[in-house]
Amino acid sequence: MKNKFCLLIVLIGLLQASSCKKEARPAQTQVVQSLESGLVNFSINGQLIASAIDTTRNTIVVTIPDSVNEQNLTANFTLAAQVAATVNNTAVSNSFVYDFSKPVNFTITSADKKRSTTFQVTVQTELQYFGLSGNVVAAKSLNNDYNFYFDQFDGSVYQAINCGPTVSTMAIKWADPAFAETPVYARSQREPQGGWWTTSDVQGYLHDNGINSITDSLSNIDSLVKTSIDNNEVVILCLDMYYVPQSTDANLHINKFYLANTAGWGHFLLVKGYKQLQYSFYFEIYDPYSQGETYTTLDAGQLKGKDRYYLDYDISKATQKWWPYAIIASQKGQKVIASTKGRVLSLKKAIPVASGR
Question: Of 108, 122, 199, 299, which shows the fewest CB atoms inside 10 Å?
Answer without folding.
Answer: 122
